[in-house]
Amino acid sequence: MKNIKVIVAAHKKYQMPKDKMYLPLQVGAKLNKEIGYQKDSEGKNISNKNPYFCELTGLYWAWQNLDADYIGLVHYRRYFKGKTKSKDKFEQILKQEEVKKLLDQDTIILPKKRRYYIETIYNHYKHTMHIETLDEAIKIIDQKYPEFMPSVNKIMKRRSMHAFNMFIMPKKYFDEYCTWLFAILFELEKKFKNVNYDAFHSRFYGRVSERLLDVWLDYHNYKYQELPFIYMEKINWGKKIISFLKAKFLGEKYNKSF
Q1: Which residues contact residue 141 at a Cβ distance below 8 angstroms, ignoring those fewer than 6 apart?
Q2: Which of 30, 26, 48, 50 is nearest to 38 (CA)?
Q3: Which of 63, 137, 234, 256 has the most CB within a 10 Å radius?
């Protein structure tokens, strides 16, 4: 029987799925009051980096401390959507039995691609964030893993990506991915040790990693299955679209999450 664990990254108390596959994880626990969930500050961890690495402190904790055949990451306000039809959003969340069937068919579960249509992945980052952070990550890949550069160039020219650092994958791939990813991010951290970004832009490690997942997937050509995802709270799509267009055409970088 497959042992599947999907961590739910959370920084505050929130309603959680009832399915035992999900493990609520307090990210940044070392810096905040306990909220009753498993803490990312136990065992080998980088919990203190949460203001910069976001949910990746939870990813690192799972990599170093969690024992399961398959490991995944979702967010307390964003999940993979299952087949259950219900007005209750928490009933719509992907269930363990559904995951087991999917894993019989495909290796990795990912959210459906986020599409940008009018610009590439690289240009979207350039218009909304500080591009030097992504540029430096690409330089590091070129130095440490030059064999990945054709995939880097290919992915950066795409107009869609698997966003949110969400996935469920076999432990062997999970270990491989985290080894590669954190080697890049820790090197990136050295380059930006004294940078003076505001709190929003200081969280660029999580955003850079969103772009790197597809690079890793493309290089290895691993099979994957895409699933829809569900937001647990309302999204102001009007503001989101306006901010996207202002960033592209007026040079106004994002200053908050939507």
Answers
A1: 148, 149, 152, 184, 212, 215
A2: 26
A3: 137
Whether 258 is in a domain gets the answer: no
Report the number of distinct structural domains present in the chain: 1
Note the pTM of the prediction, 2 decimals: 0.93
pLDDT, one tens digit per residue, over 230-253 is 999 876 555 655 665 666 565 666
Task: Band the pLDDT of 258: cuts 50, 70, 90.
Answer: very low
Domain at 158, CATH number: 3.90.550
Is the torsion defined by CA of 178, 49, 9, 34 positive or negative?
positive
Determine the Cα–Cα distance for residues 241 and 173; give it in Å rounded to an integer: 35
Closest CA to 57 of 216, 175, 178: 178
Burial class (CB in 10 A: 0-12, 13-18, 19+), 217: buried
Reading the block at residue 209, the tokens are 């990693």
